[in-house]
Structure formats: C-alpha cells, structure tokens
What we know:
Residues 4-241 form the ABC transporter domain. Belongs to the ABC transporter superfamily. GO terms for molecular function: ABC-type ferric iron transporter activity; ATP binding; ATP hydrolysis activity. The protein is an alpha+beta fold. The chain has 2 domains: 4-230, P-loop containing nucleotide triphosphate hydrolases (Rossmann fold, 3-Layer(aba) Sandwich), CATH 3.40.50; 244-354, CATH 2.40.50.140. Helices cover 24% and strands 33% of the residues. It is built from 8 helices and 24 strands. The protein has helices at residues 48-56, 98-107, 113-127, 142-154, 173-190, 201-207, 225-230, 235-240, and strands at 4-11, 25-32, 37-41, 63-68, 71-72, 83-86, 161-165, 194-198, 210-215, 218-223, 247-250, 252-254, 257-260, 263-265, 270-271, 278-282, 287-290, 294-303, 308-314, 317-323, 333-338, 344-347, 350-351, 353-354. The strands form 6 sheets. The protein has a 6-stranded mixed sheet with strand order 6-7-8-3-9-10, sandwiched between helices. The two termini are 38 Å apart. The relative contact order is 0.12. The mean pLDDT is 90.
Amino acid sequence: MAKITLSNLRHSYLPNPTGPADYALKEIDLDWNDGGAYALLGPSGCGKSTLLNIISGLLTPSDGRILFDDKDVTDLPPDQRNIAQVFQFPVIYDTMTVRENLAFPLRNRGVNEAKITERVAEIAAMLEVEDMLDTRAAHLSPDNKQKISMGRGLVRDDVNVVMFDEPLTVIDPHLKWKLRSKLKELHQRVRATMIYVTHDQTEALTFADQVVVMQEGEIVQIGTPVELFERPQHTFVGHFIGSPGMNILPALVEGGQVMFNGQAVSLEGKVTGSGGVTQLGIRPEFVSLSNAGIPARVRKVSDVGRHAVVETMVGETAVKAVIEGNLPEQGTEVHLAFQQNQTRLYRDGWIATEVVS
C-alpha cells in the first residue's frame, strides 16, 4: 500500500486556462497516509471524479504532481500505478464463476495457483460468498455482483490504493447499509489504502476516517466525521452534512457585537477578519426553545421518530431546531436559544471565529 501525495495539483479541460474559473480542480495539496480510509464527498460536478481519474492515471493534470510513497507517478499510465478500482456498475465476467472472477486479477499477473487458491478463499470468506464460488456471475443479484467486484479489487495484496467510485449507486436502498458495513469491515481487516468517492454523506461518514469535502473544484474541509459535524470550516460543509443541515443566517457585525434580526448573539469565540458577507452558522441540534431569547413563530413541525424538527420563522428567515419532548403547535410564538459554543460567524462562507483555549 502507499502514502499518496497531491502537490500543487490543478486541472482544466480548456487548452489555455486564464483564471480560476477555467479550472475544474483548483489548487490541491493533500496527503493520504498508507492504510487509511478516505472519502471524497461533494455534489455532482464538484471535481471528485476528475481527481479520482488523475490519481488513477486516466487523466494527466494541467499542473502539479502525484506521488506514491514519494515516487512521482504523474506521467505513469494506469497499468504502472498498481491501482485497483471499483466502479458504479459491477465489473465482472458473467460467463465466469465467482471463483474465476476473483482469481482473474491474480492469474492475469502470473501468480502461482497455490497462492491464487489461498487468496480467493480468504477474500470469499471476508465477503461471505463461499457458498457462491461455483455459481456463474450472471446468476447473482446486483448486490452480490458488486460484492464480487469489490473482491476483485481487494484480492491483490500488492496494490498501492483501492479506489471506489460511487460503488453503491445501483444498489437497492435496503441493501446499501449491508454493503457499507461490509466495506468498513473489509478495510479494518486488510488495512489497504482506500479512497471512496460519493455524493452521499451517509456513505462517506460511515466509511471514512477522514473525509475530503469538495465544492466547485476546491477542497473546503478535510476532517473526521465528528469534526465536519461539530465545527464546519465553511458554510457549504455545514449545509451539505447533517440532516437537517446547519442553519445559515444573515448577520451584521456592529460595534463588536454580532446581530441577527436586531438581537445580539453570543458566539463560540473571538470574531476574526473584517468585511465580506457575514452569516451565523448553528446546527439545529444546538437550537432550543426557551422562555427568553430570539422571538420566533413556529411554521412547521416534523416528527421524525426519536425527535422532531421544528421550523420557525424569525422575521423573514427560517430557523430549524431539533427538539425532543413536548412540541409546540404550528403558529405558536416561541423564543429560540442558541448554544454559545456551537454558534459561530462565517465571512464570505469561511469560518470567522477563533476559539482561545
């Protein structure tokens, strides 16, 4: 396996890019440690697949270098990068048995039959498909086909990285959680460097130790699932991760105070920087109903099981709160309290509060 380094990486599909807007990938500097589980997360068109294709060698970047264990592989073709890739649609041979499919990447590289038998048995046990080994792949269900596709990526023990490009897209929703759990278990057992590309926050947060969140060709935050939830560095991260997403509210900075709808709001720490468009960010989980605070009117109450999402209006601005226990009725006048250590200012989208330890 390998440590992967992306250094000053940029890419444009235009022959003569003249500015940042011409780049599908803005400048990226990134290190992925050997044996880690990583996710590239973002909406369609944010640059995830472009970055994956650059790492795999299907695309040469306009600028920058790619290194595997400090070896420059930028100009190497895919077959010389020692990469396994699992795609959206299962890549297996329907006319072959499961055993033959799992053995194929090893036979293709001249591995001896004893080693092939041992490795196929090991991967089949991990995937829990031992009873299918002599079944033709054409007769498998879609989720089992994708399992075998994953197994083909994992059967080699000499790869630098295993990359998953939206591997659960075609899987029925009720089966996705099984494959997500299986993939996490496989990583813990084989400790291969794995990169998982997805637009689905649940897939990314349940699989990865570190998540790279992308927007419009730019990395806006790298962190653990807990870090992304508890302290988003950009409003996009707060909005994209969480259900419901973070409240992003218009704010003014006046005389050292941050004002929302004419009321002063206490923040997690000191305000940094100046100018720009300022907004408050607070997750609904840290908004509560109280006897005093910011006046609001309840617009909607959605009971989602263990808790309810109460949508209120503060003037013309919607503010959501996650509430347990007694719920207000629609149209009720309430007051909102923001948990101070989870309330922060953003300036032009980027976090603009500093917590002093």
